[in-house]
């Protein structure tokens, strides 16, 4: 069975990519993590450090899954064999299992330290865990995280191509030159494929950075945690044109005792922010203003790929596409607090090029 949440994500992404404003060139040399004072205490993260943090989070998730499954079989959600009980267990898992945002913010939201690592230590995390990072590891040179920021640098000197492991999946990449906003730029292009969005590429400059904020919001409609990744710099999406996102927002119900009754008012969701979306139609038709907070599929919980592919997981967590949980979609509606922090700014539209030469290479 095809996951409707991820199909909806892909469809929303197509609509988004056809409608966003043009990118601006990323500002280079302004990242605070690139220009650290000489006396900054930089903590170097080894492969063991990163794997330890990943393993701890994964063990927390497997324990939570086992606890939900035990409650299911104890009849806490009704007849354990009923569809309603299994759906309740699935819903509780979606709002209680940490994911890549929790892993990333463990380092990036540390206001007292700066962490640094390289491609070797991150490669195993990217290969062994499901959906673990917000940036590709191909051609990675250095990552710095901390003080509310992430700074990623890539080696793009040579025009090369190959495959990389991202979230336990193999993806094609290439280093190429792309014209962005009238300027020829060297970028890393990583290709993504899905049933309804073929040939989407993420383009990353030599320097990719963003800021993070972790907020606790009292509601409405209920208390939730908000993970904001904002001020994105040096990243674009290519599909029928080149477009620049400005933020991601992930929210989830605040941690606490979880019961079947909580499922009805739980929250979990993700949006990508493209301010001022407008789809310019031919002159005989009116333009269409679009919602600039576009839904994305809920991130998979932070788990080893071997667990997702194996037999230890309960039956109510069915798997599709090798390492994706079936029907792993958002819970509840968009909280007003997210909309308030990422307003619809109504920026000018631009006409998307439909030149076939703009399509990514196979």
Note down, in words, how this protein is organized:
The protein has helices at residues 4-17, 47-73, 83-94, 100-108, 119-128, 305-309, 336-341; strands spanning 42-44, 114-117, 140-146, 149-154, 161-166, 169-180, 183-192, 200-217, 224-238, 242-243, 247-253, 268-273, 278-279, 288-289, 293-295, 319-320, 324-325. With 362 residues, the protein is an alpha+beta fold. It has one domain (4-358). Helix 2 (47-73) packs antiparallel against helix 3 and helix 2 (47-73) runs parallel beside helix 5. The model is unreliable at 4-28, 285-289 and 347-362 (pLDDT under 50).
What attributes characterize this protein structure?
single chain; alpha+beta; globular
The residue ranges in which pLDDT falls below 50 over 5 or more consecutive positions are 4-28, 285-289, 347-362
Sequence of secondary-structure elements: HEHHHEHEEEEEEEEEEEEEHEEH
Number of strands: 17
Number of helical segments? Answer: 7
Helix content: 10-25%
Summarize, please:
The chain is 23% helix and 30% strand.
Q: Secondary-structure map with pairings?
A:
Blueprint (H helix, E strand, L loop, with lengths): L3 H14 L24 E3 L2 H27 L9 H12 L5 H9 L5 E4 L1 H10 L11 E7 L2 E6 L6 E6 L2 E12 L2 E10 L7 E18 L6 E15 L3 E2 L3 E7 L14 E6 L4 E2 L8 E2 L3 E3 L9 H5 L9 E2 L3 E2 L10 H6 L21
Parallel strand pairs: 1-2
Antiparallel strand pairs: 2-3, 3-4, 4-8, 5-6, 6-7, 7-8, 8-9, 9-10, 9-11, 11-12, 12-15, 13-14, 16-17
Helix pairs in contact: 2-3, 2-5
